[in-house]
Specification:
The protein has one domain: Phosphoenolpyruvate-binding domains (TIM Barrel), CATH 3.20.20. The mean pLDDT is about 95. Strand 3, helix 5 and strand 4 form a beta-alpha-beta unit. By secondary structure, the chain is α/β, with parallel strands linked by helices. The chain is built from 12 helices and 8 strands. An 8-stranded parallel β-barrel has the order 1-2-3-4-5-6-7-8, surrounded by 8 helices. The N and C termini lie far apart (about 35 Å). The longest helix is centred in the middle third of the chain and has 17 residues. The protein binds 3-methyl-2-oxobutanoic acid and sodium ion.
Length: about 270
């Protein structure tokens, strides 16, 4: 039950140990997750939707993520804390460094950024060279919602699948040490997971990723006001209490029983 470290992530993948991640935005849930075996906590810019009530993550600011990161950090003693760089905080490498520095000073141990375009890869290298661990995020990157025209499964066509495989290699080569894959078909996520040495964390990416993440509100079965995506599972219904839900989720991720085919895209 030692605290997680950045080098521990790659070691877990080597050992075939699955990683259970949840999003959190405040101390109370952070404490409940930490005490019940969650390995990684994400202060996601999903807070724009589930906490602030916006229709996308685009309105979220660095100040918002810093505030929630500081609150979550005070609830943790074992889980590793990742915080999102919100929309355009990674538009230039210098902006990314300024935002990431604030997030680490608020208690994050790693920052996450979406995409693998040229300036994103440059930002990953820029941060890693400056001692800021980076988690990449590919597939359905919600900050790209306007270009995508909605929240849709990514990488279904062969050309897009090849691009995603190349992007995964590129972010790893740039120095990212963790990779979130969101809403990609299970076989593609499995292929990427086999091809990179850094752990992959899936959300709607099938059972073969090295770990899984869910958004807190989805995990508790709260109605988002939108159609519930296929990968969402209400663990509160199964676990009976918040602590029970967390234990059920962690056990199911660790033993590979979540997600099953019903909660994945073929
Ligand atoms: O913001 C968020 O919660 C995320 C996860 C869904 C991966 O980026
Ligand atoms: Na996010």
């Amino acid at each position: 039950n030692k605290p997680w470290t950045i080098p521990g992530l790659a070691a877990a993948k080597q050992a075939g140990q699955k990683l259970a991640m949840l999003t959190a935005y405040d101390t109370g849930f952070a404490r409940a997750f930490d005490a019940n075996g969650v390995d990684l906590i994400l202060v996601g810019d999903s807070l724009g939707m589930v906490v602030q009530g916006h229709a996308s993550t685009l309105p979220v600011t660095v100040d918002d993520i810093v505030y929630h990161t500081a609150n979550v950090a005070r609830g943790l003693s074992r889980a590793l804390l990742v915080a999102d760089l919100p929309f355009q905080a990674d538009a230039t490498s210098q902006r990314a460094l300024d935002a990431a520095t604030r997030l680490l000073q608020a208690g994050a141990q790693m920052v996450k950024l979406e995409g693998a375009g040229p300036h994103k890869l440059e930002a990953v290298r820029f941060l890693v060279e400056r001692e800021i661990p980076v988690c990449a995020h590919l597939g359905l990157t919600p900050q790209s919602v306007l270009r995508f025209g909605g929240y849709k499964v990514q990488g279904r066509e062969e050309v897009a699948a090849r691009q995603l495989r190349e992007d995964a290699q590129a972010v790893a080569a740039a120095g990212a040490q963790l990779l979130v894959l969101e809403c990609v078909p299970s076989p593609l996520a499995a292929a990427i997971t086999g091809a990179v040495s850094i752990p992959t964390i899936g959300i709607g990416a099938g059972p073969d990723c090295d770990g899984q993440v869910l958004v807190l509100h989805d995990f508790l079965g709260l109605d988002s006001g939108h159609r519930r995506p296929r990968f969402v599972k209400d663990f509160l219904a199964e676990g009976g209490s918040v602590a029970g839900a967390v234990r059920a989720y962690v056990a199911a991720v660790h033993d590979g029983s979540f997600p099953d085919a019903e909660h994945s895209y073929a």
